[in-house]
Design brief:
With 170 residues, the chain is mainly α. 59% of the residues lie in helices and 5% in strands. Phosphorylase b kinase catalyzes the phosphorylation of serine in certain substrates, including troponin I.
Length: 170
């Protein structure tokens, strides 16, 4: 995608804990202080993180996720992630959102949660194969909702903490 590495750079600027993907990590520091977004070394570092992805479909979803995170952060410069972001966790969250939107009764969804996926071998909620067959609109929507949920969860906790500490009995 156009300006892909600049988008990853923006995400890294807003994520002090860095980015995780499976067992790999892209730390915010020293990455931002030692490299620039247009450097080949930065591109290579990003590719090392993303290179562990086995399936091309997952890789495509990862690219879409990074594009969506960058768009949200660009349009809302006041937002930032307080901790590290697990990219694979966001994809699992988006898959769960998509699963919940699927028609079907709760009993059949509960039984599917225990089954092993024939396509990827993952069990239940760890399987993200549901995303491979979804429409672009529904995929983007679920990815964006997973990102916003993560950003808002932090803001809601901070608001609740502030409400408790700012509460004074007269």
């Amino acid at each position: 995608p156009a300006n892909f590495y600049e988008k990853v750079w923006l995400i890294l600027q807003k994520t002090p804990g860095g980015l995780f993907l499976f067992e790999g990590m892209l730390p915010q520091q020293p990455t931002l202080s030692e490299l620039s977004p247009t450097e080949m070394s930065f591109a290579r570092t990003v590719q090392e993180l993303l290179g562990v992805v086995k399936y091309p479909e997952y890789s495509q979803i990862m690219g879409e996720l990074l594009r969506i995170i960058a768009t949200i952060l660009q349009r809302n410069p006041e937002l930032r992630f307080p901790y590290a972001v697990r990219l694979d966790g966001l994809i699992r969250d988006a898959a769960q959102i998509l699963r919940l939107e699927q028609p079907g009764d709760e009993a059949s969804q509960a039984s599917k949660a225990e089954e092993k996926c024939e396509q990827c071998g993952s069990k239940g909620l760890d399987c993200v194969c549901i995303m491979y067959n979804s429409s672009n609109d529904s995929l983007s929507s679920c990815l964006a909702r997973a990102v916003v949920n993560l950003l808002l969860a932090k803001d809601m906790r901070k608001g609740a903490d502030r409400a408790v500490t700012d509460c004074k009995v007269a």
